[in-house]
Amino acid sequence: SPSLYLVKRVRDEAHRFAIEYHRSLRGKAMTASVLDDVPGVGPKRRKAIVRHFGSVKRLRSATVDEIAEVPGVPRQIAEDIHAVLAQWGNSTQ
Questions:
Q1: DSSP string of 4-66?
Q2: What pLDDT score does 3 carry?
Q3: What pLDDT is stored for residue 90 in this prediction?
Q4: Residue 89 pLDDT grade (very low, low, confident, very high; cuts 50, 70, 90)
Q5: Cα(31)–Cα(44) distance, integer angstroms
Q6: C-alpha closest to that of 59 among 72, 78, 36, 40
Q7: Residue 72 gets which letter from DSSP?
Q8: pLDDT level of residue 87 (50, 70, 90 thresholds)
Q9: The CATH number of the domain covering residues in 34-93
Q10: Pick from 58, 56, 36, 55: nearest CA to 46
């Protein structure tokens, strides 16, 4: 009947909306980074840093000088990154 069809469509749309919302949350959580907490590190610098080091483990073991070698990362921001990574490491252990 038309009324049941309408209820079915409303239900399907509500489910679709909820699924898309949860997918977007999950996607944001998966792309979240400890570098998001560092002032001066936006998407371009974050991408360059991740490409340069390849993993969080390698980045965490890097010195300030090694972080500053990444193109587009000035020494002050490298120091900030190093400090945030040191704090992050202490809070997760």
A1: HHHHHHHHHHHHHHHHHHHHHHHHHHHH--GGGGSTT--HHHHHHHHHHH-SHHHHHT--HHH
A2: 92
A3: 63
A4: low
A5: 14
A6: 78
A7: T
A8: confident
A9: 1.10.150.20
A10: 36
Contact 49, 59 (CB under 8 A): yes
The C-alpha atoms of residue 84 and residue 77 are separated, in whole angstroms, by: 10
**Residue bearing tokens 């073991």:** 61
The domain spans of the chain are 1-32, 34-93
Q: What is the pLDDT of residues 37-52, one digit of tens each?
A: 788 888 888 889 988 9
Q: What Å distances lie between residue 82 and 24, 34, 60, CA to CA? A: 30, 11, 8
Residue with tokens 């998966």, as numbered in its chain? 30
Q: What is the DSSP letter of 81?
A: H
pTM: 0.60
* Chain centroid offset of residue 83 CA: 18
Quote the tokens at residue 67: 């972080």
